[in-house]
Design a protein that fits this description.
- It contains 7 helices and no strands.
- By secondary structure, the chain is mainly alpha-helical.
- It has one domain.
- Helix 2 packs antiparallel against helix 5.
- The longest helix is centred in the middle third of the chain and has 32 residues.
- It is elongated.
- It starts with a helix and ends with a helix.
- Belongs to the cytochrome P450 family.
- Keywords: Heme, Iron, Membrane, Metal-binding, Monooxygenase, Oxidoreductase, Transmembrane, Transmembrane helix.
- GO terms for molecular function: heme binding; iron ion binding; monooxygenase activity; oxidoreductase activity, acting on paired donors, with incorporation or reduction of molecular oxygen.
Length: 128
């Protein structure tokens, strides 16, 4: 229930790939929290070779997560373009959600530091 509420707040609706998103996020948190021998000896080539599987799995999970969040951003972008400014946002109730706010700020270009899709995905990952 908590993940559904969080996804609705961030994405405006329940994510269609919510099961994959939750599994990927849980797996990534497990891997980040774990201890590896390379953490003790970061300059050791032998320790680096021993932990190649963890690095590979993290890259696979990153690609999955990027695909899901890219899809969410693309759907929001296309809904904003189709509405032609008549609708405030993409949420179920017609209001702006977190993705809409970021896309609007990006389009207006009045930020001191410009943002891109990777910044939006980073915030969505932290909030999810």
């Amino acid at each position: 229930m908590a993940s559904s509420v969080t996804c609705r707040a961030a994405f405006g609706a329940a994510c269609k790939d919510s099961e994959m998103l939750l599994k990927t996020m849980a797996d990534s948190l497990k891997m980040v929290g774990g201890f590896e021998i390379v953490d003790l000896f970061p300059s050791s080539r032998i320790a680096g070779v021993m932990s190649w599987r963890k690095l590979w799995l993290m890259r696979v999970m990153r690609r999955r997560l990027d695909a899901i969040l890219d899809d969410v951003i693309a759907r929001h972008r296309s809904n904003r373009a189709e509405s032609g400014g008549r609708r405030l946002g993409n949420s179920e109730f017609g209001s702006e959600d977190l993705v809409d706010v970021f896309l609007r700020a990006k389009e207006e270009g009045q930020l001191q530091y410009p943002i891109d899709d990777n910044n939006i995905k980073a915030v969505l990952f932290v909030k999810s």
